[in-house]
Write a structure and sequence with these properties.
Blueprint: H1 4-7, E1 21-22, H2 23-28, E2 32-36, E3 42-46, E4 53-59, E5 65-73, E6 76-82, E7 91-97, E8 100-107, E9 116-123, E10 126-132, E11 148-153, E12 161-167, E13 181-184, E14 193-202, E15 212-213, E16 219-221, H3 228-238, H4 243-249, E17 257-259, E18 264-268, E19 282-288, H5 300-308, E20 314-316, H6 318-328, H7 347-360, H8 370-378
Antiparallel strand pairs: 1-13, 2-3, 3-12, 4-9, 4-13, 5-6, 5-12, 6-7, 7-8, 8-18, 9-10, 10-11, 14-15, 14-19, 14-20, 16-17, 18-19
Length: 383
């Protein structure tokens, strides 16, 4: 056997696991990099790029506990996070394109600051974020079914680095750490939509005001989410402070601000790669039922009625939604939205054509895994 030390082969030059591995291990063998994530601190990411992967972590829920995927630099990546200060939109999936922020999916939920599991996944053009309620010990290499999955179809980023955000400037306790974060295969459990819509896009593209589909709002305080906040709020209110001033002085109070008309949705918004702005200010939106919808939120039927009152919103049949999605994003093909049967006589040709399509989008040869593509093509994609 050759003398590895004498030949000068160093540890980081050897092959290493690129799936089902903790970031602690990747860090020990010098296979991680660090990168700033716009204004939100920095991220620890894989040193190599991958197309179809997921990153899962146990996170301390605070202002911004974030995972990043397909990151090429600090202004181009996918982002999955919890934010208990959002108004019944505390679990979100976003894309950052040329520094511009677009919300792709939101779960209508108000969460507290307890630790949770979070997973960001991408398989071809399906990008997903999964929420885990980890009330019993969970093996990250064999995770249970998520409590809920939000997902979107998007073509903005085809490959990149994967990782997690460590710190935010006002959050010294961080979101997660290397022993609790794992690089895993892509995972794509998709919920079934109950309604398809065409919806106007609003926002300015900043982190505070991302591009997003216009949705109804009925924002008010719900003190049952954290009764301790009410006393502090009323004390400051009696002294003449406005709601915004109270939120600045006492950010925890935002946990109790809710949008009672919040809905769980997925949005297809095609972005200009050079600016990140929407190619058209319209989104194809899928709405989802919530069997465990929180009691302080309005019933889904009421929310749908309010959505349909928004100017420019129109209902779509499933096939109309698929056609509209293909029109909005010319980088999509029908196989990105509709599963293909393995029993189809043309299946091998479809796979070959789809591989060629991925190459045409700039996916490098080493990132193309035919087995993964076959699996993606046969999976239900939430359409």
């Amino acid at each position: 056997m050759p003398d590895v030390a004498r030949l000068g082969i160093r540890r980081f030059e050897l092959e290493y696991p690129t799936v089902n591995v903790s970031f602690s291990y990747l860090s020990i063998i010098n296979r991680v990099h660090i990168v700033s994530t716009s204004v939100y601190g920095f991220a620890v990411v894989t040193s190599d790029s991958f197309a179809d992967r997921s990153v899962m972590a146990g996170v301390q829920v605070n202002a911004y506990s974030q995972l990043v995927g397909r990151l090429t630099n600090n202004v181009n990546f996918y982002l999955s996070f919890y934010n208990p200060g959002a108004s019944a939109a505390d679990h979100q999936l976003q894309k950052i394109v040329a520094g511009t922020t677009t919300t792709l999916a939101t779960e209508a939920i108000d969460i507290d600051n307890r630790g949770r599991g979070l997973r960001l996944s991408a398989s071809s053009t399906t990008v997903s974020s999964m929420r885990y309620e980890i009330t019993t010990p969970v093996d990250p290499l064999n995770p249970p079914s998520p409590a809920w999955t939000i997902s979107a179809t998007d073509t903005s980023h085809t490959s990149g680095r994967w990782g997690y955000r460590m710190l935010r400037e006002s959050s010294p306790h961080g979101g997660t750490e290397s022993a609790a974060a794992y690089l895993l295969p892509a995972a794509t459990p998709q919920p079934q939509p109950v309604l398809y819509l065409e919806v106007p896009v609003v926002g300015s593209g900043t982190p505070e005001d991302p591009f997003r589909p216009e949705m109804p709002e009925e924002v008010s305080w719900e003190w049952s989410l954290d009764p301790r906040c009410r006393r502090r709020y009323e004390s400051l209110k009696s002294r003449g402070f406005s709601d915004d001033e109270i939120a600045d002085l006492f950010p925890d109070v935002l946990v109790c601000r809710t949008n009672r008309l919040s809905v769980t949705y997925s949005a297809l918004i095609a972005s200009d790669p050079s600016t990140g702005r929407p190619k058209e200010y319209v989104a194809v939106v899928r709405l989802y039922d919530q069997p465990d919808r929180q009691g302080h939120l309005r019933p889904l039927d009421r929310c749908v009625d309010e959505v349909l009152k928004i100017k420019g919103v129109r209902k779509l049949e499933r096939e109309d939604a698929i056609r509209r999605a293909l029109m909005l994003d010319d980088r999509l093909v029908r196989e990105d939205l509709v599963p293909v049967s393995r029993s189809d006589k043309r299946f091998k040709t479809v796979v070959s054509d789809y591989v060629a399509h991925r190459r045409s989008l700039g996916v490098r040869e080493e990132h193309i895994d035919v087995e993964s593509i076959e699996r993606f093509l046969t999976e239900y994609k939430g359409w």
